[in-house]
Amino acid sequence: MSKTKAGGTSKNNHDSPGQRLGIKVYGGQTVKTGNIIVRQIGMTKRAGVGTFLSRNYTIHAAKDGIVVFKERRVKSFSGRTIPRTEVTVE
C-alpha cells in the first residue's frame, strides 16, 4: 500500500484578475466630458450635478470642469438617513 495519496486533481487553484475599481480622478482635479471619475459596484458614491451614472454604476463627467466630493445624507429604504459621498463637476 502507498503511504501518500495519488497526485492530481487540485481544488481551489483558480484566480481572477482584479476589477480595477475605485476613484480615478480626485477632488480638485480637472476632467473633460465623458471621463471616468469613479468605478464602483453598487451606488457607494452618488452622481451629482455635472455627472452621470452608467449601467455598471460608473460615474462619468457630463461636462468639463473640476471634480468635487461632498458628504450627503441620503434616505434609505427603511427611512433611516445614511451618509453618502456625492460626486459633482463644477
Structure description:
This protein has 90 residues and is mainly beta. It has one domain (22-89): RNA polymerase II/Efflux pump adaptor protein, barrel-sandwich hybrid domain (OB fold (Dihydrolipoamide Acetyltransferase, E2P), Beta Barrel). The chain contains no helices and 8 strands. It has strands at 22-23, 30-31, 36-39, 45-47, 51-53, 59-61, 65-75, 81-89. The mean pLDDT is 91.
Fold blueprint:
Blueprint: E1 22-23, E2 30-31, E3 36-39, E4 45-47, E5 51-53, E6 59-61, E7 65-75, E8 81-89
Parallel strand pairs: 4-8
Antiparallel strand pairs: 1-3, 2-7, 3-6, 5-6, 7-8
Oligomeric state of the chains present here: single chain
What's the Cα radius of gyration?
Answer: 21 Å
CATH H-level superfamily title? RNA polymerase II/Efflux pump adaptor protein, barrel-sandwich hybrid domain
Q: How much of the sequence is in beta strands?
A: 35-45%
The biggest sheet, with number of strands, parallel, antiparallel or mixed sense and barrel status, is: 4 strands, antiparallel
Helix content estimate = under 10%
Report how far apart the termini are: 75 Å
Total beta-strand segments: 8
Give the CATH class. Mainly Beta
Overall body shape: elongated
From the coordinates shown, what is the CATH architecture?
A: Beta Barrel
CATH fold descriptor: OB fold (Dihydrolipoamide Acetyltransferase, E2P)
Question: Treating each run of at least 4 consecutive H or I residues as one helix, how many helices?
Answer: 0
- Major beta sheet, strand line-up: 1-3-6-5
Q: What structural class do helix, strand and pairing data support? A: mainly beta
Q: Unreliable runs, pLDDT <50, ≥5 residues?
A: none
> What is the succession of H and E elements?
EEEEEEEE
Q: What do the pLDDT scores average to?
A: 91
Q: Indicate how many domains the architecture comprises.
A: 1
